[in-house]
């Protein structure tokens, strides 16, 4: 049996992480969730997933710092930022410049779009 693709979701909104967990677990992913930046970083270190979903505003460590630490410690891991913070694209451009694989605005209009981006990120992380 093939190993399930690991996914870590780091977001302080428990309802959002539950929705991510439910949706992606049903599609064969091994999902791990954290509600704070530091606990999320521990999950990334422990599970070494190919893809991490990160919120920008987190208790303990903001998404910028988390993104940079993940990119430094796990360069093959792809980070997708999902945030409700909208400033006309400046933050998105900055995050992409810091190495984020993709950026999504909350609320997500479709988890299918996110799923397609995660598939691309997994393939990219394996190259």
Tell me what the structure shows.
This protein has 127 residues and is an alpha/beta fold. It has one domain (6-125): Rossmann fold (3-Layer(aba) Sandwich). It has helices at 14-25, 37-47, 63-73, 90-97, 111-125; strands spanning 6-10, 30-34, 51-54, 78-83, 102-105. The protein has a 5-stranded parallel sheet with strand order 2-1-3-4-5, with helices on both faces. Helix 2 runs parallel beside helix 3. The longest helix has 15 residues, at 111-125. It starts with 5 loop residues before the first strand and ends with a helix.
Blueprint (SSEs and pairs):
Layout: E1 6-10, H1 14-25, E2 30-34, H2 37-47, E3 51-54, H3 63-73, E4 78-83, H4 90-97, E5 102-105, H5 111-125
Parallel strand pairs: 1-2, 1-3, 3-4, 4-5
Helix pairs in contact: 2-3
What would the principal axes of the Cα set say about the shape?
globular
Our estimate of the beta-strand percent is 15-25%
The main sheet orders its strands as: 2-1-3-4-5
The Cα radius of gyration reads 13 Å
Helix content: 40-55%
Task: Enumerate the spans where pLDDT stays under 50 for 5 or more consecutive residues.
Answer: none
What gap, in angstroms, lies between the N and C termini?
22 Å
Query: What is the CATH C level class, in words?
Result: Alpha Beta
**In total, how many beta strands?**
5
Biggest sheet character: 5 strands, parallel
**Mean pLDDT across all residues, rounded?**
93
């Amino acid at each position: 049996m093939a190993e399930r693709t690991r996914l870590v979701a780091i977001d302080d909104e428990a309802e959002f992480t539950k929705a991510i967990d439910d949706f992606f677990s049903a599609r064969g992913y091994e999902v791990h969730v954290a509600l704070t930046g530091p606990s999320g970083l521990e999950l990334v270190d422990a599970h070494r997933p190919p893809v991490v979903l990160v919120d920008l505003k987190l208790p303990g460590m903001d998404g910028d710092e988390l993104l940079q630490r993940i990119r430094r410690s796990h360069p093959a891991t792809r980070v997708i930022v999902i945030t409700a913070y909208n400033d006309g694209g400046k933050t998105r451009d900055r995050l992409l410049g810091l190495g984020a694989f993709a950026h999504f605005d909350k609320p997500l209009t479709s988890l299918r779009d996110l799923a397609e981006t995660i598939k691309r990120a997994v393939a990219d992380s394996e190259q």
